[in-house]
Each structure stands twice: as C-alpha cells, then as structure tokens.
C-alpha cells in the first residue's frame, strides 16, 4: 500500500497530570469533518504509527485518529515513573474526545490500547459504538505479564543508525509480526526509534514506562467484570501464536458475547501488525457489516 497518496496530519493537545500538564500527540487521516470516526490506540511498547497502513485504508470512509499514549512516540514524557498509570491513560483519551468534540467513535485497540478500550466500552452510556480488539482480552495471566515485564525491564538498546535498528526489530519482532515486506519492516523501524541528544537512536518509549509493566505483573490481570457489561459489537483479532490472548480466554469471552466475531491469523503472535491487505480487509468488512 502506498501511503503517500493519503493525507495525514500531525496534532498535539494539552492534558492534566498530577504534577501539571503534558501534551498528547496524534495523527489524523481522512476528512476532518467526517462524522464517522475511529480511534486506533497502540500497545505497551509501540506507538501511533503502527496504524499507518490500516488508517490509510480506512481514510476514504472514516476520520481516523491515532494517538500516542503519554511516554510514547511524539507525546511528552513524564518526570516521575509512578505517574504512568492506566487511570491517566483513560483520562487522556477522554480529554482527546473532548478536544475533538466527539460524542461517539469506533475503537481499534492493540494490546494495551485494547485494554483501555475494554475499560471505556464498559462504562455506562459508553461513547464506543463498535470495538475492535487486536490480540487482547479481559484476562492475562501473571506468567504472561511477567514475561512482558522482563522484556521491558531489560537495558534499552541503542543504535548508531537505522540499519542497526532494523536488524534489532527483525530479531525482536519477527516471531510476533510474521511475514512483513522489507518496506513494512523499514516503516516499522523508522517510527519505532528516536534520535537522542547523545547521538544514538533509542526506542520511542521511555524506560520509566517499564515500571508499570512490573507493577502489573504481580497478579493476573482480570477485567471480566468489565467485559460482561460491554454492549457494543466486538471484533476480536487473534494471533495464532499469541502468548497473551489464549484460546481459553477467547472461549470464555464468547460465553457473554456469543455474537463476537473472532478472526485468527496464522504465523503471527502478539500482536498482528495490521499492515497486510488481508488483515486490513477483515476490519473493513466487519465495519461495513456492523454499521
């Protein structure tokens, strides 16, 4: 897919935090006056540019908003690691809706972005009309959370150039993301690193954010009480080799949501990259069918 033919714009707005304010960055695709809006929110160690391919494909029918969670991508960094909380992330997303004057939206959340979507969709009179979860559900075992925390708490790598960073991305994400083209790997890498003042490239999220993953890994993550009250249509995308979204979790999710559509992608782990045409078409078809 050629992204150059689709208009994307960059924006920022201010939010409150316990010690003052911070700025959240987001990209916008499609016509800014389109009332059909979908918000795409990334995972724990990722950023908004993961959605460039799916956003470009949806932009002809939707206004697509892709925010960077605080501490990621082009959003600000917080000075105190304990201020990174899910409560703040949710407050920021509510502030984003207020900033854009949106009353209802569709929601596509990968991993952590999906957990935030579950939290928001479970609220009474939720603004989420349709919910797409990318390889995430209301339960993650302590064992899986510990693996995530261990990975995030490793010393953050540094790279002298884009080539070194791309080799790292191949090694770190090949098993999870499956068969991407060289152009897709290049795109993923380019938007996963930042040039620091020391002249080295580092991953585009702050090491302090690993504090939250370590805190979460002390017990199973259990959001079943939120899941059972969600009333909107749900599409669940599943990486067959995922160690986060397990088959038994999907089966239990279907008990309270028997109409939920589940699509499993082979040769992919956590999370499907949503860059391949076949993956994007699943999302487009589901949105058309469940309009």
Question: Could you characterize what this model shows?
Answer:
Helix 4 (142-152) packs antiparallel against helix 7 and helix 5 (162-177) packs across helix 6 (182-190). The protein is globular and about 50 Å long. It contains ten helices and 13 strands. With 291 residues, it is of the alpha/beta class. The chain has an eight-stranded mixed beta sheet with strand order 1-2-4-3-5-6-12-13, with helices on both faces. The chain starts with 7 loop residues before the first strand and ends with a helix. It has helices spanning 52-58, 86-100, 112-121, 142-152, 162-177, 182-190, 210-216, 224-227, 247-256, 277-289, and strands spanning 8-17, 20-29, 37-41, 63-67, 105-110, 128-134, 139-140, 158-159, 193-195, 201-203, 221-222, 234-239, 261-265. The mean pLDDT is 92.
Number of helices: 10
Order of helices and strands: EEEHEHEHEEHEHHEEHEHEHEH
Shape: globular
Tell me the strand order in the biggest sheet.
1-2-4-3-5-6-12-13
What composes the largest sheet?
8 strands, mixed
Radius of gyration: 18 Å
- In total, the number of strands is 13
Quick rundown:
With 291 residues, this protein is of the alpha/beta class. The protein has helices at residues 52-58, 86-100, 112-121, 142-152, 162-177, 182-190, 210-216, 224-227, 247-256, 277-289, and strands spanning 8-17, 20-29, 37-41, 63-67, 105-110, 128-134, 139-140, 158-159, 193-195, 201-203, 221-222, 234-239, 261-265.
List strands and helices in order, with pairings.
Blueprint: E1 8-17, E2 20-29, E3 37-41, H1 52-58, E4 63-67, H2 86-100, E5 105-110, H3 112-121, E6 128-134, E7 139-140, H4 142-152, E8 158-159, H5 162-177, H6 182-190, E9 193-195, E10 201-203, H7 210-216, E11 221-222, H8 224-227, E12 234-239, H9 247-256, E13 261-265, H10 277-289
Parallel strand pairs: 3-4, 3-5, 5-6, 6-12, 12-13
Antiparallel strand pairs: 1-2, 2-4, 7-11, 8-10, 9-10
């Amino acid at each position: 897919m050629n992204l150059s033919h689709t208009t994307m714009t960059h924006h920022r707005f201010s939010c409150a935090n316990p010690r003052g304010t911070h700025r959240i960055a987001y990209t916008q695709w499609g016509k800014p006056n389109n009332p059909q809006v979908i918000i795409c929110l990334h995972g724990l160690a990722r950023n908004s540019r993961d959605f460039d391919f799916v956003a470009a494909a949806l932009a002809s029918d939707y206004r697509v908003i892709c925010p960077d969670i605080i501490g990621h991508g082009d959003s600000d960094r917080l000075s105190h690691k304990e201020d990174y909380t899910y409560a703040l992330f949710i407050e920021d997303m509510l502030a984003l809706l207020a900033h854009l004057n949106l009353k209802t939206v569709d929601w596509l959340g990968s991993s952590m972005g999906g957990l935030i979507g579950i939290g928001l969709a479970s609220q009474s009179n939720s603004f989420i009309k349709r919910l797409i979860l990318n390889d995430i559900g209301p339960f993650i075992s302590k064992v899986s959370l510990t693996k995530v925390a261990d990975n995030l708490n490793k010393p953050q790598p540094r790279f002298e150039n884009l080539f070194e960073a791309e080799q790292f991305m191949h090694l770190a994400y090949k098993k999870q993301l499956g068969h991407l083209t060289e152009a897709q790997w290049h795109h993923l890498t380019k938007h996963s690193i930042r040039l620091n003042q020391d002249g080295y490239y580092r991953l585009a999220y702050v090491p302090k954010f690993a504090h939250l993953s370590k805190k979460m890994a002390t017990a199973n993550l259990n959001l079943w009480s939120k899941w059972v009250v969600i009333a909107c249509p749900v599409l669940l995308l599943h990486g067959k080799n995922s160690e986060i979204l397990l088959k038994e979790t999907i089966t239990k999710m279907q008990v309270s949501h028997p109409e939920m559509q589940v699509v499993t992608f082979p040769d992919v782990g956590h999370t499907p990259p949503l860059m391949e045409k076949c993956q994007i078409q699943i999302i487009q078809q589901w949105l058309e069918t469940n309009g």
